[in-house]
Amino acid sequence: MKLRIIKIDRNNSTWSKLALLSVLGAVASVVALATPGTGILSNSISRAAIDAFDAESQNGDWHIHLDTNGQSDLITQSITLLPGGSSGWHNHPGPAILSVRAGTLTFYEGNDPDCTPHVFAAGTGLIERGGDVHIARNEGANALSIDVTYIVSRDAPQRVDEPSPGNCPF
User: What's the CATH code, domain 36-161?
Assistant: First the structure.
């Protein structure tokens, strides 16, 4: 058996093309791992830049305190998931405040080994912490409509696609 030695000239344009193809292949692999949404319609209502804030309010036993240490974007979006639709696995780089307007939202967390469904009917809502991988699904027979407000650092995306964490069968 003969061993063939190939000398690669890094200044050669063929080497540059191979390196570029390798990089593009790696990027395509990462994109291919993402789980895009299906049966989803979204409408961004607004995006507003806000300065750092420290807001606190109290009413009887109820208390809220929100603060940031820098500029933020406040983003409001209306989302509809058709029956069988899904948001795809993703996270948000800041909190997301959801209100279910119509239908039923079924929410799964990527760090839950049991893939426990959390069900939210119309008139209920939830707050997603930033950075947690999750998926929203419409497992009902009617369209699901939700309104979402995101608070993220200035110019950050409101959503980051993620690969399936592998804890759910879908």
Answer: 2.60.120.10
